[in-house]
Write a structure and sequence with these properties.
about 550 residues, five-stranded parallel sheet, alpha+beta, seven-stranded mixed sheet, 22 strands, about 25% strand
Length: about 550
């Protein structure tokens, strides 16, 4: 016999299956001995009041055990003899596109410029030791994409474009904890996600697909007569190769060389709005105390606390992004002369720090205004001169196209270069205590921090573009009023957070998801400007695979 209940419990009552069974026996009159299993269907925490509750939807099994798995499995057939499609990029968009192609009976050939997820980890460790970035193997490039070693958060608001549940079920089928099916804000953890990614790759190989690491796409192969993409050229260990088939392009939001190539090849793109700012880190205990409204913080039965802030300041959004309770701040640059920061959390969210991006919305029209008013200048460099350098690098690529399609990318690059110069031209990141930043004061010392390459005190309020700095200062004042204790010099701002989303949108047809002017090219995921996170990228990967499969079927 099974019965479902909606329960509202104290944290200690919801801490385990045994505790829930004890509650049901006491409050609902169940025979304790008859409860053989409890499956949690949904779980969320209500910390709005002094008394904290855990809301649960549970299925109670009496005198029987479940005969089904808590997730739905997908059947992946052998596709070794089927027509193939090329998937460029092994991030969530590319991996889910490849798995969906297999599900639909087509053979994926996955090309990844970086290393496999295990080898990649070694290069991440070297960033702290050597203060150097490997441009092909880092926190953004490699198997699993930017999410593999920067948290694995699965919460998304993108629920209209496809099935979030399907994506979560596929993760569970490949080894993720089934807790992600029930938690309100599901999270795999950066220490667990690599094994899941490896299992997804093994499914692709077992079914007859291919996965090529350290294989970098150099150009699309376009049939001049039909104006169709028929494959890609790639280089692997200095050896050039060709791979034939329609192309799902899922290269991620940091593949700037791909954007430059597409612009030179006259593949239609447009600049899109982004958000940039800093990474803000507090002691986790302080965030727990603030969010749970009690001196003891999370105590023994609650997870590390999360927060979310959003505020309009002078016509632009200022908000928290990618909040990582009990996590670390990490170096996420992809090339030399850059500092970029991001955040991650292990599965247990057990570190002594909690961090979040704190960013300001920037629209495409803002860049023209910033240049016109000379509002984006710094003691170290100038955006307009960088724009000129950039146009020189791209040979016959017109200034107009640079300004129209790649101007947001150039804006990101300039901020990252300024940050690198402020950080002593190493991966030591410029930082400032939070209250000092708001009051325009230099921090003479800095608190202990999770950012392993190290910090250097820097006046972020001075060298960040005023468009960003002034809005962050006002946003922090407002957030401090909403949550007493949040605005504090115990917290530190670390520069800069720029890779919140792609600065470019590769134009595609809403009906076919193919590029607007070329058949056989399916721009996909976060790098193409159509997703924002692991789950939404996975959803978009599946959609692109469906359209690619339909295209293959009609050929």
């Amino acid at each position: 016999m099974t019965t479902e209940f909606q329960l509202r419990l104290l944290p200690e009552q919801a801490a385990s299956e045994q505790a829930i069974a004890d509650y049901l026996s006491l409050e609902k009159g169940f025979d304790r001995g008859s409860i053989s299993h409890i499956r949690v269907l949904k779980r969320s925490i209500d910390a709005r009041q002094r008394t904290i509750f855990v809301n649960l939807a549970v299925r109670v099994y009496q005198n029987e055990m479940p005969t089904d798995e808590p997730f739905l499995r997908v059947d992946y057939p052998d596709v070794s003899e089927r027509p193939q499609a090329i998937v460029v990029g092994a991030g969530p968009g590319g991996l889910f596109a490849a798995l969906k192609l297999i599900e639909l009976g087509f053979r994926p050939v996955v090309l990844e410029r970086g290393k496999n997820v295990r080898e990649r980890k070694k290069d991440l460790a070297l960033i702290t030791k050597t203060q150097q970035i490997d441009p092909e193997s880092n926190y953004c490039f490699g198997e699993g994409g930017a999410g593999a070693y920067s948290d694995g958060k699965l919460y998304t608001r993108s629920k209209k474009r496809g099935s979030v549940e399907k994506i979560l079920n596929v993760f569970c089928q490949h080894g993720a904890s089934t807790n992600i099916l029930s938690d309100a804000h599901p999270h795999i953890g950066t220490d667990k996600l690599p094994q899941v990614i490896e299992a997804m790759r093994n499914t692709i190989l077992r079914c007859g697909g291919e996965v090529h690491f350290q294989t970098k796409m150099t150009r699309l192969i376009i049939d001049s007569a039909s104006r169709k993409v028929v494959g890609v050229e790639a280089v692997s260990q200095e050896k050039e190769q060709q791979f034939r088939g329609p192309v799902i392009l899922a290269t991620g939001h940091s593949a700037r060389d791909v954007y430059r190539y597409l612009a030179e090849a006259r593949i239609e793109m447009e600049a899109k709005g982004i958000a940039v700012g800093v990474r803000l880190e507090h002691p986790a205990q302080l965030i727990d105390q603030i969010q749970y409204h009690r001196r003891e913080g999370r105590g023994d039965y609650l997870p590390a606390a999360e927060y979310s802030f959003v505020q309009q300041v002078e016509g632009r959004g200022v908000y928290s992004f990618c909040m990582c309770p009990g996590g670390f701040v990490i170096p996420a640059a992809t090339d030399k002369q850059q500092i970029v920061v991001n955040g991650m959390s292990p599965a247990n969210r057990g570190t002594q720090w909690s961090n979040s991006g704190m960013v300001v919305e920037i629209r495409t029209e803002d860049i023209d205004s910033l240049l016109k008013n000379d509002d984006f200048s710094s003691p170290k460099d100038d955006f307009s001169s960088q724009n000129n350098d950039f146009s020189t690098q791209t040979d016959d690529f017109s200034t107009k196209n640079i300004e129209n399609s790649l101007k947001m990318m150039a804006f990101q690059e300039q901020l990252e270069r300024d940050c690198w110069q402020q950080g002593n031209r190493k991966q030591t990141a410029p930082a400032q205590r939070m209250a000092d930043f708001v009051h325009g004061k230099l921090s003479f010392d800095l608190p202990k921090c999770s950012y392993a390459p190290g910090l250097v005190s820097s006046p972020l309020h001075f060298w960040l573009p005023p468009f960003i700095a002034h809005r962050l200062q006002e946003g922090f004042r407002i957030f401090g009023k909403k949550s007493r204790g949040f605005l504090t010099n115990e917290a530190v701002l670390i520069g800069v957070e720029t890779r919140t989303s792609s600065p470019v949108r590769i134009l595609r047809s809403p009906e076919t998801l193919q590029h607007v002017s070329i058949e056989g090219l399916f721009p996909c995921g976060e790098g193409a400007g159509y997703a924002g996170g692991i789950v939404s990228a996975g959803i978009d990967g599946e959609r692109c695979a469906e359209m690619c499969a339909e295209y293959l079927s009609l050929r």
